[in-house]
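Researcher: We are triaging several targets before committing to wet-lab work. For this one, the compound of interest is S-adenosylmethionine. I'm pasting the protein sequence and the ligand SMILES. What I need is the predicted three-dimensional arrangement of the protein with the ligand bound, expressed as structure tokens, so it can go straight into our comparison scripts without reformatting.
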Amino acid sequence: MNPAVDTLMKELGFPKENIPVCIETGTHRGWGTESFSKYFKRVYTIELSQELFEYCTETYKNLSNIRFLQGHSPELLPEIVKNLPKYFLFLDAHGSGGDTTFHDQVGRLGSPAIQEILACKENPPEYIVIDDLQDFDMIPSYPKRSQIWEAVSSIGSYEGSVINLYKGWFVFKKR
Ligand SMILES: C[S@@+](CC[C@H](N)C(=O)[O-])C[C@H]1O[C@@H](n2cnc3c(N)ncnc32)[C@H](O)[C@@H]1O
């Protein structure tokens, strides 16, 4: 379980009956995924590391509302979102040292957030939440807030806000 997810969900007023699905990018050890599974009917989570994917598939095999997927998140997202009802998108895929991994196109000190947002353009989410906003502000090779805004605005009309708890969340809600 990840207590930060409970804080985020409380701040945003989830669960919401009309938003039954969550997509998380960056599963790691499934701590956030397990927490999201309490707030949504179905959770999709994408992890690049084969080892972490296998660990989570085994560890959470009794949680039937989670679908674990392995791969580079921007490549998998278009197929996942294609036929989804309203959904919540939580972006947390980035290399963070330790047992985490990263995609060569992104680099260890980067985030695929822009590519992930654009990958959802055919069926944009109700919410887009960028985790670890402090990293985006502090690490020069991460996308800038203005670049994230630009990507979000290109897929739909959203209002943006920041929640300054834990490492900060950038939150976009569809108008
Ligand atoms: C910060 S951790 C995720 C933490 C997790 N969401 C939680 O709440 O505990 C980031 C994870 O993203 C994975 N990752 C890195 N690049 C990725 C990519 N392009 N696609 C999918 N997963 C990726 C890393 O291997 C790592 O496990």
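Researcher: Any quick observations?
Model: The chain has one domain: 3-174.
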